[in-house]
Amino acid sequence: MTGFADLGYARVDTDREARQGLPEVVYAPGKQPAEITGIVTELLARSTGPVLVTRLDADAAAQVGVPGGSYHETARLLVWRPAPPRPFRVCIATAGTADWPVAAEAEAVCTAIGLTTHVVRDVGVAGLHRLLAVREELAGADAVIVVAGMEGALASAVGGLVACPVVAVPTSTGYGAALDGVTALLAMLASCAAGLTVVNIDSGFGAAMAAHRLAHTAAGRR
To answer: If you classify domain 89-220 with CATH, what class do you get?
Structure first.
């Protein structure tokens, strides 16, 4: 057993599900629809869990020749065999409406892999009372994903309110000095709310995977 399938243009990691609880996820940019079709076909044949293709536009999704997939346009996510819900609860909080596309990716991925999700929109610190109004919803989660651009302050505010793990996603939302998300990224990394997990700019997918690792590890220890 090599642990991968060599398709010539890709070496599909067929052991990923055994190691991490999910099959390999396909990143669409740079791949032709025929290549995505081949990889997805292999993953469906060699695994039992959900198969995901991320960052896929609608035109390319329509050209992927594998039946049974469900496409989420805002999240740019194509899914086969979504997992049944697990009891691990993820609250996804956005600072502003403009952050929604990134949060939509996090929500769609979490849902596809079986995490129970709840979304709280538009609770940025420019109106702190909006955040305090949903404090109980945040505190009741097993993990919170915070999606924020501008100066990224929402992650610190949430990190100070809840005891559960907080995964912060900086977004490229903001005017000039926001530097396409770099300002929010650095602010989240420098947060005084100790223990934040910070993922890459605009990576709703990365945040969902962080939540999955938390849920997968917790389930394995029960």
So the answer is: alpha beta
